[in-house]
Amino acid sequence: MVDSISHYLLSDIFGYLSVVDVCQCSLVCHSWYQIVQQEILWKKRVLNEWKINSNLQHLDCSWIAEYKRLHSVRSLKPWATLSVHDDQVFHVSVSNSGKYLCSVSKDKYAIVWKVSEYSHKSVTIL
Considering only CA atoms, which of 57, 60, 108 is closest in space to residue 85? Predict the structure, then answer.
C-alpha cells in the first residue's frame, strides 16, 4: 500500500507534518528518506515559517541548510521590542564595547542603537 502512494502526494503530506514527524518519516524507508531530502519541501517550510518573500529563488546553500541555520538562530521567546522597524528583525549584533546594537530587518533597514540612550540612527541597506 505505502509503495503505491505517489512521491508528490507524500511530499505534500509531509509538508503538513511537524519537523520532528518529517524526520521520523525519513527513517521509514529509503524512498521516504529521499522525499524528505527534496529541496522543495524545505523551501516551502523556510518561506512559510519565516514569512519570506516567495520570489526568492536562489540561495548560496541548500534549503535544508537554510532551514537548519534559521532554526538554530531563532530566538525562542522575544526579549525586546524594536518598534522602529516596520517588519521582522532578522539579526541583532552587539558591539565589542557593549554600548551599541545593530539590528537588521526585513524592512531593508539596519539600525544602530546606542544602548545607554535608546537613540538610533538608521541606514538603508542597498
Answer: 108
